[in-house]
Amino acid sequence: MAASPFPDGFLWGGAIAANQAEGASFEGGKGLTTVDMIPHGAHRLAVKTGQEKRFQLKEDEFYPSHQAIDFYHRYKEDIALMAEMGFTVFRTSIAWSRLYPNGDEMTPNAEGIAFYRDVFAECKKYGIEPLVTLCHFDVPMHLVVEYGSWRNRKMVEFFARYARTCFEAFDGLVKYWLTFNEINILLHSPFSGAGLVFEEGEHQEQVKYQAAHHELVASALATKIAHEVNPENQVGCMLAGGNFYPRTCKPEDVWAALQKDRENLFFIDVQARGAYPSYTKRVFAEKGIVIAKEAGDDQILKNTVDFVSFSYYASRCASADMNDNNSSAANIVKSLKNPHIEVSEWGWGIDPLGLRITMNMMYDRYQKPLFLVENGLGAKDEINAQGEIIDDYRISYLREHIHAMGEAIRDGIPVIGYTSWGCIDLVSASTGEMSKRYGFVYVDRDDSGNGTLDRKRKQSFWWYKKVIASNGGDLA
């Protein structure tokens, strides 16, 4: 067994999100959120991107988040399975609307706080550090209907109140925090990313970047509050990561790739460096965007994050002649097909070296510790005649990516930990399917919501247990 590149105390675990796992959408005083309005099926993409306004549930549609995998009632069983694998970190999110059902109340819902205290205490019982996202694609619907969500400045105040509630209520249970999950997805999927819907003829880029400004101010305020409540708190930002490669060495393609990278990195440039980057001046002018700032905003933005977290599933590819007809619809972040790499069943590129490239770029850029908080393979899993789930394809994907992360650490990059995405099967954020499975633990549920919800260990469960026990030294 080779010497492990992973430092002592490296955090190993897995990740889920409240809206993809908890279910219980109408229990415990919880209010409806944006994700609760996103159906499975033909209308899903139009609703996610804010092109189809959906403020009411429809009786003839199926909403996967409403029951999800019922983590709300089964969290003890699920956390015990994670402990069995040896997890030292578990990433989950708090559903904003469990604490503030409408989002604009002055006082939180005690039942929601009690639920999360129980979840985090259960983690601590097994020596597992919770890594908690404050907003993982689930804005309370009342804030969307009443205020227009993040296009409205009032959201900063509502989010700051919610964040303070979390930092105070869970002090001593949680020290690792993320503000907004995949904050750059706001540009690509505005409703699921930030609760934005558009009116006919509206300047959509203006709306998106103004909303982004409000989120960035809110994130910086939350970071400031977290450090005031407890100086031990560690707060990170979260990027949907993956570098854009130029399709060719044609200079125009190289420039196109750089622009595409900046489009996504803009958010982290602000959160990690504390100011708008210089390139935004020209970009905003050319797009006709004018950011309305309040006095003091630039000062607030100086409250930078302690670490940079990110998801990595695939690298991306760009060229000067990219358009809607030649870029892949497989992922919400549009990309050209890269002929040099394999793709998953859902068309996502499989590129472990791309992870090392991305990590080197990000550390060069930010000089802050990194935390890989999502990485995994969505695939269809079959139960064989012996009742086993032999998911060698998932093991292979994770092995190669963990190896690449180890190489990045050898490159000199400080990395806090690794939480593979969907450590237990859950509802896919992109497609709403259960059949697009990521977990080490199988959940008996299908795309229509049928099944016992029983849990079953896959072959990858035992493999990951061995990886953790060896601190990443044994990937065989």
Question: Can you describe this structure in just a few lines?
Answer:
With 476 residues, this protein is of the alpha/beta class.
What labels describe this entry?
476 residues, alpha/beta, TIM Barrel, eight-stranded parallel β-barrel, two-stranded parallel ribbon, 13% strand
Care to describe what's here?
- The protein has a single domain, classed as TIM Barrel.
- It is an alpha/beta fold and 476 residues long.
- Strands 1-2-3-4-5-7-11-12 form an eight-stranded parallel beta barrel, surrounded by four helices.
- Strand 9 and strand 10 form a beta hairpin.
- The chain is globular.
- The longest helix is centred in the middle third of the chain and has 26 residues.
- The chain is built from 15 helices and 14 strands.
- Helix 7 runs parallel beside helix 9.
- 38% of the residues lie in helices and 13% in strands.
- Its EC number is 3.2.1.86.
- This is 6-phospho-beta-glucosidase.
Instruction: Count the domains.
Output: 1
Spell the H/E element sequence: EHHHEHHEHHEHHEEHHHEEEEHEHEEEH
Globally, the shape reads: globular
Strand order of the largest sheet: 1-2-3-4-5-7-11-12
Runs with pLDDT <50, length 5+? none
At CATH level 2, the architecture is: Alpha-Beta Barrel
What's the pLDDT, averaged over the residues?
Answer: 96
Q: Span between N and C termini?
A: 9 Å
Helical percent range? 25-40%
Query: CATH homologous superfamily?
Result: Glycosidases
Sheet of most strands = 8 strands, parallel, barrel
Radius of gyration: 21 Å
Percentage of β-strand residues? 5-15%
Extended strand count: 14
Number of helices: 15
